């Protein structure tokens, strides 16, 4: 396998690992097990899945006062109010989608941690995928393709002899001299 091919394969491998790392969602349930600030009188003891439902909805909502945290991760008073509202709506039997729609209608789509896949936001979802698929091709076309012109150009990794270098320099110098005389 030649050097160009190895570099291209390594580049693809590095981009694939990077993309995989970016797509991993941290386990927010492990980070926020106690859900401080939630009114426990709203929690129905007969519903064993209540806490899981609460965590599932709260990790989808962005903390309005924190940078980069979900409502589930945050312990600010405003996030605790949102968690209380989520708990109340779950107790009323509302589904996850209904609760998320309620918050989007109150705060706008910004409140969601992941942008909805509609309208212009589709570009937010498709651009990284497009970049990872077309990027290596663009790298090959603009960086690694063999440049046309000089027949003395060698493949990457091949050595030119001193005679070839001198001949190339002599030809370039003659072209420069011709350009100066014509000017």
Overall description:
The protein has a domain at 32-111: Helicase, Ruva Protein, domain 3, CATH 1.10.8.640. With 183 residues, it is mainly α. 58% of the residues lie in helices and 0% in strands. The protein has helices spanning 3-23, 28-31, 50-58, 77-91, 96-107, 121-144, 162-182. Helix 1 (3-23) packs antiparallel against helix 6 (121-144) and helix 3 packs across helix 4. The chain has seven helices and no strands.
Q: Which features characterize this protein?
A:
mainly alpha; Helicase, Ruva Protein, domain 3; about 60% helix; elongated
Topology (SSEs and partners):
Elements: H1 3-23, H2 28-31, H3 50-58, H4 77-91, H5 96-107, H6 121-144, H7 162-182
Helix pairs in contact: 1-6, 3-4
What would a concise description of this structure say?
This protein has 183 residues and is an all-alpha fold.
Q: Could you say what the CATH topology of the domain at 32-111 is called?
A: Helicase, Ruva Protein, domain 3
Helical content stands at 55-70%
Radius of gyration over all CA atoms, rounded: 30 Å
- From N to C, what is the helix and strand string? HHHHHHH
Q: Which shape, going by the Cα principal axes?
A: elongated
CATH class of the domain at 32-111: Mainly Alpha
Q: Helix count? A: 7
Distance between the termini: 48 Å
**Number of strand segments:** 0
The major beta sheet can be summarized as: none
Structural class: mainly alpha
**CATH architecture heading of the domain at 32-111:** Orthogonal Bundle
Beta-strand content bin: under 5%
Low-confidence stretches: 25-37
Give the full name of the CATH homologous superfamily of the domain at 32-111: Cytochrome C biogenesis protein
Average pLDDT, all residues:
76
